[in-house]
Write a structure and sequence with these properties.
Blueprint: H1 62-65, H2 86-97, H3 102-121, H4 126-129, H5 134-144, H6 150-166, H7 175-187, H8 203-212, H9 218-233, E1 259-263, E2 269-275, E3 285-290, H10 298-309, E4 320-322, E5 325-327, H11 331-345, H12 353-365, H13 370-376, H14 383-389, H15 395-401
Helix pairs in contact: 3-6, 5-7, 6-7, 9-10, 9-12
């Protein structure tokens, strides 16, 4: 009997214990989406040395396209070749990549770039970068301290760890020592890396912004509907806007067909929005609001927007009619419009996160139970308490908003 070897053995029609091997021969349905976007040239200060292991690509692709000196092996613990193909190895990496939310791919890619730049400056050879030694990682953290925020540096550390695990390389680092180093770096973070304190949005601010908008304008109608819906659903701006006109997958963002009216158990009508995909929930989540009195009523704003822009059911919910066609509302366009109104009103710089804080406080001050607000805002554990206590600008509200101590 002739024994097949090499790649020939992978085409064998006999698979031990499987009567229909073709079920494993199909292309993975979870493959990372191909992109036609061309990466821009790197900043002069962040241009790595040319290497076949680190091709020039988008930051979000670096975690899986940048390879260590030794790639994932097809050998078992005895040194024998396991009967899997290169495409199987690619599928392994694809599945492992999906353990991280897509929003983290770019963050981790940036961290990997900074790590390689550090290694280039210190002439660290490729075989010492991965598996990386404890002293190398500690030296990297120490070198970055005072240059980056503690949160950024923490993400960079986990990017290097994820890169090792993704490509089946041993992680030889003592995480306890690295945690101490990262904690120290947070105290050394530059002042410019910290977000300035910002006040929460209030209903009065919403109404003031409304007075500066022309709600018969397609853009302004979309912006005000998005503003009031985000406020009363205690949602994040990125959940109702898209990152850019080109770089987004419509299937991951709310569309006109993803909202509907319903009636709660008390007979009150509520409006429910299904967010198709979240960072922590690939199946999405529902957020909702009820009709409000006054000019900040989100129902009136939403119905006005749909009347002005006349959207198809498959269109992004807060799209607006531009002279070149229908445009999904981008985060930048949304913030730009709000800031323009704020400048005319003399309100100063408005931060998007202040909208989520404001919606939370509005419900608390209306007497909605604390636990109910946590559920509405999808705040995990005691994050909301810690968040509110950490904001000095919110002190005037605390005696009304926080639950009594146990």
């Amino acid at each position: 009997m002739t024994v097949k070897s090499g790649e020939d053995c992978y085409s064998s029609s006999v698979v031990h214990g499987v009567s229909n091997p073709s079920r494993f021969a199909t292309t993975s349905p979870f493959a990372i989406a191909e992109t036609t976007a061309c990466p821009r040239p790197c900043d002069v200060s962040l241009t790595p040395q040319p290497s076949p292991l680190c091709p020039h690509c988008l930051a979000r692709d670096q975690l899986h396209l940048w390879l260590p000196h030794i790639t994932r092996s097809r050998l078992d613990h005895t040194g024998s070749l396991v009967r899997i193909s290169n495409s199987d190895i690619d599928r392994i990496i694809t599945v492992l990549s999906h353990s991280h939310a897509p929003s983290m791919w770019e963050t981790y890619g940036s961290g990997l770039l900074v790590f390689h730049m550090f290694c280039n400056v210190h002439a660290i050879p490729e075989d010492q970068r991965c598996p990386a030694s404890l002293v190398l990682i500690l030296a990297f953290i120490a070198a970055c301290s005072g240059l980056y925020s503690g949160k950024s540096l923490e993400n960079y550390f986990y990017a290097i760890q994820a890169w090792h695990l993704l490509h089946s390389q041993a992680w030889l680092v003592n995480n306890n020592q690295c945690s101490l180093a990262i904690s120290g770096s947070k105290h050394l973070a530059p002042i410019t890396s910290k977000w300035p304190k910002h006040a929460p949005f209030t209903v009065d601010i919403l109404v003031a912004i409304r007075s500066m908008l022309d709600l018969s304008s397609p853009l302004h109608a979309a912006v005000y509907a998005c503003l009031t819906t985000s406020f009363y659903t205690i949602a994040r701006i990125r959940e109702f806007t898209v990152p850019s006109l080109l770089n987004f997958n419509l299937q991951h963002y709310i569309r006109v067909c993803n909202w509907h009216f319903d009636v709660d158990r008390h007979g009150f009508r509520v409006t429910i929005f299904h967010l198709p995909r979240m960072k922590t929930s690939l199946l999405g989540e529902d957020v909702y609001w009820a009709t409000q009195s006054g000019q900040s009523n989100p129902e009136a704003a939403l119905l006005n927007h749909l009347s002005v822009n006349k959207l198809a059911s498959t269109t992004a919910l807060f799209s607006w009619c531009h002279c070149t066609g229908m445009h999904p509302l981008t985060r930048n366009e949304f913030i730009k419009c709000l800031q323009s109104s704020s400048d005319h009103l003399g309100l100063g710089s408005l931060k998007a996160h202040g909208l989520r804080i404001g919606g939370t406080l509005e419900y608390l001050l209306q007497g909605v139970p604390f636990e109910n607000v946590k559920t509405m805002g999808r705040w995990s554990s005691d994050t909301l308490v810690l968040f509110l206590q950490d904001k000095p600008v919110l002190e005037p509200f605390m005696c009304y908003a926080l639950p009594p101590p146990l």
